[in-house]
Design goal:
Blueprint: E1 21-25, E2 28-31, E3 36-39, H1 42-45, H2 54-64, H3 77-89, E4 94-98, H4 101-120, E5 126-130, H5 139-143, H6 148-151, E6 161-164, H7 169-175, E7 180-185, E8 188-189, E9 195-196, H8 199-212, E10 215-219, E11 243-246, E12 257-261, H9 263-266, H10 282-295, H11 298-321, E13 326-332, E14 335-340, H12 347-353, E15 356-357, E16 359-362, E17 365-368, H13 376-398
Parallel strand pairs: 3-15, 5-6, 5-7, 7-10, 10-11
Antiparallel strand pairs: 1-2, 2-3, 4-12, 8-9, 11-12, 13-14, 14-17, 16-17
Helix pairs in contact: 2-10, 3-10, 11-13
Length: 399
């Protein structure tokens, strides 16, 4: 990409790739210099139906020609329809709409603390979160994020947040008390490296929340909307949380967030206690409703599980062939990670050379979160390219 000066007025808060994207189509992205890339990032688990999906585009155009914004001083049918659909498809009975995953987490934190205050007293404000977790970059969401590197120089953060190791049931039991108001979990820790939580740990968290009158919140900002092969990842555990944070894939690229909850819990955010000017606007709600119509189908989710299995099996086959290079393959559905035994310098660049975009937060880790509409041919294309790259690294290691 030439002429980087044209981007000088954008704040330097991101470590961007030197690629200018100008167009998307299905599972492919196109750059200004004419290159085509297989998108295995999907806007960071956002574009679950790929880019410029025809049904979503038609819905957007129709709604945008009628109404853009009213604020939440009025009722609109797109918001009502989406709330009802989310409740029909989940454990929820009430929905608060906002604009992002971090905002949905903020709403959950406020609700958990208000619930603790009112139900058990002013001391019941403790929140339990997990090490290696990621819940967002606002001050509240950052406070329950278990990665110190994101918190550096931003203190003081919210008090009374305790971090425990993922899947450590003993630590969970020792930490829970009458002064705990909430537990927040990602069913699969995404930004932390794609680590699914043990079902036994999730079930024990539910049991302890029942025993101590604590709210269990699932952060499904990445795992929700079909990413793991179920519409929501909590379904794999056979339990229900009290609250669920959604965003990312819900509107396939338009800004939306949602806090879904049980009615008796959501009552602890009555009129005047929380708000969002743009939350639940008519355009994003209509598009999100269409997203759920498509992804919420059993056949669609079955295909996600099948394609996720195909991709994971292919990666496990490569692990067997390149034991000295690949340490572990993990994840669920189309949310997978490949961890290498040692850093593979420049692996992201090698994929780009072969027309593939994937997340490489570090040279030791490859994260794969493609659009859920990815096909067998595209999966084969990626696996072949990765095999070629691993052969090159293996050959270089022997020299």
């Amino acid at each position: 990409m030439d002429n980087m000066d044209k981007f000088d007025c954008i704040a330097k808060t991101y470590n961007r790739l030197p690629i200018e994207i100008i167009r998307g189509e299905g599972v492919w992205l196109f750059s200004d210099d004419g290159r085509r890339f297989l998108d295995l990032i999907a806007g960071i688990a956002v574009c679950n139906l790929g880019h410029v999906h025809n049904d979503l585009l038609d819905t957007l155009k129709e709604t945008a020609s009628n109404l853009w914004h009213t604020s939440n001083l009025f009722w609109t049918m797109p918001q009502a329809r989406l709330a009802k659909r989310l409740c029909e498809l989940s454990f929820g009975q009430k929905v608060f709409f906002c604009n992002s995953g971090a905002e949905s987490v903020e709403a959950a934190i406020k609700l958990m603390r208000r619930y603790g205050h009112i139900k058990k007293g002013a001391s019941s404000i403790g929140i339990i979160a997990l090490e290696r977790s990621f819940h967002g970059r606002t001050m509240g969401a950052l406070s329950v994020t278990g990665q110190p590197k994101y918190q550096l120089h931003f203190g003081p953060l919210l008090m009374n947040v305790t971090f425990i190791p993922p899947n450590d049931i003993d630590a969970l039991m020792l930490t829970v008390s009458y002064d705990t108001c909430g537990i927040i979990l990602e069913p699969v820790q995404g930004e932390g490296g794609v680590y699914p939580l043990d079902l036994e740990f999730i079930k024990e968290a539910r049991r302890l929340c029942n025993e101590y009158d604590i709210l269990l919140c699932f952060d499904e900002v990445q795992t929700g909307i079909g990413r793991t092969g179920r519409l929501f990842a909590y379904e794999w555990a056979g339990i229900e949380p009290d609250l669920m944070c959604l965003a990312k894939g819900l509107s396939n690229g338009l800004p939306i967030g949602a806090l879904v909850g049980k009615e008796e819990v959501m009552e602890y955010l009555p009129k005047g206690t929380h708000a969002s000017t743009f939350g639940g606007g008519p355009i994003v709600c209509e598009v999100a409703h269409k997203v759920l119509d498509i992804i919420g189908q059993d056949d669609f989710l079955s295909e996600v599980r099948e394609k996720g299995g195909l991709l994971k099996d292919g990666l496990l086959s490569l692990q067997e062939r390149f034991k000295g290079i690949i340490k572990e393959v993990r994840g669920m559905g189309l949310m997978l990670a490949v961890e290498f035994n040692k850093p593979l310098k420049g692996i992201g660049d090698e994929l780009i050379k072969r027309g593939i975009l994937a997340l490489t937060p570090e040279d030791r880790l490859l994260r794969l979160i493609p659009p859920l509409i990815i096909g067998h041919e595209e999966i084969g294309f990626f696996l072949s390219a990765l095999e070629d790259i691993l052969k090159t690294y293996k050959k270089g290691a022997k020299q």
